[in-house]
Known about the structure:
Elements: H1 5-12, E1 17-20, E2 23-24, H2 35-50, H3 54-57, E3 58-59, E4 62-63, H4 72-88, H5 97-108, H6 122-135, E5 139-142, E6 158-163, E7 166-177, E8 184-187, E9 202-207, E10 213-217, H7 221-224, E11 241-252, E12 256-259, H8 262-270, H9 274-304, H10 310-335, E13 338-339, E14 347-348, H11 351-376, H12 395-403, H13 410-424, H14 427-438, H15 443-452, H16 456-468, E15 470-471, E16 474-475
Parallel strand pairs: 1-10, 5-8
Antiparallel strand pairs: 1-2, 3-4, 6-7, 7-11, 8-9, 9-12, 10-11, 13-14, 15-16
Amino acid sequence: MIRSGSHYLDALDDGREIWLDGERVKGVSSHPAFRGTAASIAGLYDLAHGSDHSSVLTSDGVHRAYTVPRTHADLVARRQAYKVWAEASYGFLGRTPDYMASGAAGFAALPQLFTTDTFDGSDNVLAFHRRLAENDLYCAFTITNPRPRPGGDDPVVRVVAERDGGIVVRGAKTIGSGAVFADEVLVGTIEPLAPDDVEHALCFSLPVDTPGLKLISRTSYEGRARGVFDNPLSSRFDENDAMLVCDDVFVPWERVLTYRNVAATAGMWWRTPAYLNFVHQAATRFWTKLEFLTGVAILLTRDNGTHELPAVTQSVGRLLGMVAQAKAFVLAAEASYEEVDGGCGGVAPGTEISFAQRIMAGELYPRAIQEIKGLAGGAIIQLPASGEDLRHPELGPLMEPYLNSPESTAEERVKLLKLAWDALGSEFASRHEQYERFYHGAPHVYLMMQHGAGGAADCERLARACLDGYDLTGPGRAPGVGTAGGAGGGRRR
Ligand SMILES: Cc1cc2nc3c(=O)[nH]c(=O)nc-3n(C[C@H](O)[C@H](O)[C@H](O)COP(=O)(O)OP(=O)(O)OC[C@H]3O[C@@H](n4cnc5c(N)ncnc54)[C@H](O)[C@@H]3O)c2cc1C
């Protein structure tokens, strides 16, 4: 079933326990802190449900992100689907439903990983994938742990009782992006666990309205937005990040994916293609976001009347180079696809390039923002608090002559500059910079992983081939010999 937007919105208003500013939220779809974003997510479902994009977004009655790719062409088709949804939020909704959908397809490609000597979650993981796909559900995930305080209670989600039919869990996970808008939330751990830390080696997925499951929302930028004209992004694409607390939550066995098994709890991300699928979706969104931001930069330079200056053209050229880099990582990960171990016939985007995308994107995004801020200048600050001021009988005519530009009317210019501020300088924009730097994980972890992802031996071999080609007695062989494998001829003595 492909859901419509209204079907999605109706399901949101269940008994879920969401807290914002000390108050329990009643009705996410109509609450001023969430309704604009909920409507944007509903818009995504409508794109898949019945629009010209349906055939790109869906295949055999499910969203393409749920299918297990088997060929390079399947990867390309998935990326085309990711791109349609990414463009619908200009890349600002990071955790659209296709994100976890792609992860679920990754788990389903290797269900045998979930069969362990402590628990057999293989049927449950296939049922999880089927349930999400067939009902077109939105699943968020919380896999980052709070820090324990020495001598204090364990703050991390763990099992406090086993009962007939399931387990009772208590504790927290730090950030669940999009969780307040989701149908289900997957609770697990991606951080490395000590080999004997079976207490925290646990993964399950529950409906967001499960009794005892609480989501404590951060400040809502949407709630602070004045409206679409003044805050065009934060009023509509604030996916929110909430802390998840499990206050003695009952989890039926059929909802448990891993239990008391460190290898499976980590391996579900790293040995199945789930994480590589995540990066494929995220890298497509990142590329789209850079396209959008570069477009904003070009419009700013036109409006500022600077677009023909050589230095400005170079700066825009630098941004376009960044867009091309972001695109190249997506295409290269697809082209370097790998077969999934385990004989299921599935493929996944290449590990080396996918892992490198995390480094590139986290480092590139702040540079891109700085570059665009440099092009924007002070204009993004010199704005009336509200666009409505332009309609004020006294203020409007007073400001108008000072807000015009050679390219646009006062209203057009204020509209563009407010969009730019929301994307580059607002609290929402600052959250996005932190998101692009950290949502993939902590740099000290993924930089170490890159080291293990391959490539080091080839680099070392090439440098070694150069060194081996000469010594104090003179050049031993022509440059280039021995670079393909380092097995060049003997050195002359
Ligand atoms: C906007 C946003 C949205 C997010 N959404 C989600 C979500 O939906 N679900 C989810 O599960 N998680 C989410 N995260 C969490 C994200 O996965 C983590 O922030 C990330 O894994 C880093 O973990 P941490 O924040 O605990 O950082 P820490 O581990 O506290 O690290 C902080 C800094 O210190 C460095 N550091 C720490 N230890 C070392 C060391 N030993 N050596 C060298 N450097 C070190 C790190 O590299 C990092 O730069 C989100 C994060 C952000 C910012």
